[in-house]
Amino acid sequence: MESFRIRLDYNNMLAEFVGQDGINPAEIDKIQAKIDAAVAAMAAKRDQMAWRDLPHNQDNVVSDILAYAAQVRAKFDTLVVFGIGGSALGPIALQQAIHSPFYNICQTHRSGGPRLFVADNIDPATMARLLDMVDLKTTLFSVVSKSGSTSETMAQFMIIKNMLEQNLGKSAAKDHLVCTTDRENGNLIKIARTEGYKTFYIPGGVGGRFSQLCPVGLLPAAICGIDIRQLLAGAAYMDDLCKSDNNPAYMYAILHYIAMMRGKNISVMMPYADSLKYIADWYAQLWAESLGKKYDRAGNVVNVGQTPVKALGVTDQHSQVQLYVEGPYDKIVVLLGVDSFHADVEIPKTFADVPSLGFLGGHTLARLLTAEQQATEYALMKAGRMNMTITLPQVNEFTIGQLLYMLEMATAFAGELLDIDAFDQPGVEEGKNATYAYFGRPGYETKKAEMDAAPAKNPKYII
Ligand code: PA5
To answer: Does residue 208 line the site of ligand 1, with CB under 6 A?
Structure first.
């Protein structure tokens, strides 16, 4: 386990390394009372954070998922997940992290698992092509919604339910649908019970963006052959690390908090591994939706938060790094690195007589990638730009479990430091409610009237 422990290196957040823009350890001491209060709040609110139980209390759930996954793998060649936000980003991130990028197009890479498509957006052209491409007879559709009422996911569910019933008949259709939702609340659970769909539950106290380690993430992962026990073991291991004095999640949050207080309103996550690209996507939602808030807990208008930016090493060295090194001092950069890749490719000693190319020969692509990561860290440090690096000894279920759990803990702790509710999303609800009103959903008449009263667009400004 120790050899797969992930590491947080925050040297380059400190003034000692990046100069005047960096953090002085005395600044951490200065907010010690705030840190202590946040630590106490994390303990006091433990019961309201059911997502922290997920690494420990799911033996039965995991058994049920694995048994169902075995049946699905024997019967279906394609799995389509309908869900959005927390219900989609985690499954995508996990699939991309653990499996080959060519999983869907290469049977050998799939080792008998079904192809996986996560249809989060409702772009009609994409949806039409997806439905054209899959064979209904051999496809399982997984509908994931905590609230059971999100318009996008429920619209997709209605489309597919109808198609399955028309093409396969009502009785066969139900074996092609599985639901993951709240045990008590929302439309989806009621429909699932009436129709007799196989159902998995999102525990109360586990919000969308904190749901990756419950059936939302575990079910598609298990169906695609990801070792979900190791994933949870990694999260449990990080939970233990978070009990030590050197809590990596809390340190991550403290450094971000100090940076935010100094006006660093942008937090870049830049993995140096294609497998981690979508972890940055998942994290962007977690950080943005949890911390971007108008009010603090006392009801004061604070408008806090930090805009997450997703980048990819080395690709974005040729795109965004120029801005990070020389642009405004408004951001911090979190690099994600990997010690050991699952495969490597050697660069041949071709052009040994051309010095400006010959130096590459005999090295591997992993060595080149790591050198470029170190070079970016160095360039940022030299330019006085705060950055830190999280390193995974290898990308596997155990290290990804640690990473996900660490970032969830860091987010919750940052919420405490900011004194905001990291678990609600009133801004998202506003958009959802406005959509309901546009569509004339009963109960949203007042919202519709409010929207109708808003100033009409002036054609003069549309050119
Ligand atoms: O994190 C969240 O709560 C949101 O992003 C939700 O996951 C998203 O809005 C989808 O909601 P639901 O799972 O209720 O369909």
So the answer is: yes
Asked whether 145 lines ligand 1 (CB < 6 A), one says yes
Q: State the distance from the centre of ligand 1 to the C-alpha of 250, rounded, in angstroms.
A: 25
H or E stretch covering 387: strand 387-394
pLDDT in tens, the chain (463 residues): 889 999 999 999 999 999 999 999 999 999 999 999 999 999 999 999 999 999 999 999 999 999 999 999 999 999 999 999 999 999 999 999 999 889 999 888 888 899 999 999 999 999 999 999 999 999 999 999 999 989 999 999 999 999 999 999 999 999 999 999 999 999 999 999 999 999 999 999 999 999 999 999 999 999 999 999 999 999 999 999 999 999 999 999 999 999 999 999 999 999 999 999 999 999 999 999 999 999 999 999 999 999 999 999 999 999 999 999 999 999 999 999 999 999 999 999 999 999 999 999 999 999 999 999 999 999 999 999 999 999 999 999 999 999 999 999 999 999 999 999 999 999 888 888 888 888 889 999 998 999 889 999 999 999 9
* Residue 148 alpha carbon to ligand 1 centre in Å: 9
- 318 among known catalytic residues: yes
DSSP string, 322-357: HHHHHS-S-EEEEEEEEEE-S---BPP-TTTT-HHH
Q: What are the CA-CA distances from residue 217 to residues 89, 299, 451 (Å)?
A: 9, 34, 36
Question: Is residue 426 in contact with ligand 1, taking CB distance under 6 Å?
Answer: no
Name the 3-class secondary structure at 144: strand
Is 445 considered catalytic here? no
- Please give the distance, rounded to the nearest whole angstrom, from the Cα atom of residue 219 to the centre of ligand 1: 17
| 176 belongs to the catalytic site | no
- Does the Cβ of 150 fall within 6 Å of ligand 1? yes
**Nearest alpha carbon to residue 159 among 175, 146, 185, 141:** 141
